[in-house]
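Q&A log
Question type: sequence-to-structure
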Amino acid sequence: MAGMGDGYVGTAQDAVRIRRLEKQREAERRKIQELKNKTASVKGQAGLLQFGSGTTEILETAFKKETIGLVTRDQYVEKRVNIKNKIEEEEKEKLQKQQEEEARLQLEKRQKRKIKGSSRLSFAEDLDDGADEEDGENKSLEPVQLKRGKFGKDPTVETSFLPDSEREAEEQAERERLKRQWVCEQEMIKNEPLEITYSYWDGTGHRRVIQVRKGDTIGDFLRAIQQQLAPEFREVRTASVENLLYVKEDLIIPHQHSFYELIVNKARGKSGPLFHFDVHEDVRTIADATIEKDESHAGKVVERHWYEKNKHIFPASRWEIYDPTKKWERYTIHGD
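Response status: OK
Response body:
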């Protein structure tokens, strides 16, 4: 085929696209050349401050351009002074513009803070925007000064539910004082004397009276009883305190419980109260079933061996271990 030896030259569309690209490249080259020429002309102007150049360098450059050729001494001095004054004026104008811009930015910041603060606090006092209105002349002469108002709270708003470290510290101190006072009062109660009427039970009763403290435990009470009964009863003298039992109102009270605990909790037994330690009977002249009987029976002190031997026989058959969590709604006697 003719023309194949010269190489492929493309279609008509390719030729059009190539000419369009060449025009675009030529236009870009012209723009770049214009920018270079403009930059060179700007650098050559002596009256403009160049970025990164010092005042002395700018002054010398401008002075050299103005003193080309022969000049007299007066002309030399005059041109140098004129150029220096011109550069100083340009610097002053630039500094003044910077100050005005900073003042404008500060004013905008104050106005934004004012708007933000007044919208955030519903109970804040209105900000004072300035002094009272004055004459127009004074306003034009004196700069505007913004006064900052004091933020406060509305005294009618309830704030007792808010955290208050001082109030909490006072309340904590008062609680500690009341706690110490209560503990001191309870210690005084525990040290009060308590007279107890009891009966040593070995099948028959041997009633005695002994005095202890309200804070003493049942174990302390039985130890004192052992010392009191040892000269008279040989089995008590040879028995240990752990082998002695205290039975009050048909309940065997463990050694770790104290009389203070029974009194404070108003403990109840099967046949009477556990917080009365004397002996008295209900002497009401009129029977009233709606009123509980007020009777207190002497507690029994027994030896554990005797109890294990006779616990199937009355009255030991009614006895059971005292449980503080168990409540007795009414008193019963003789198994009823």
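Response note: The first strand starts at residue 193 and ends at 201.
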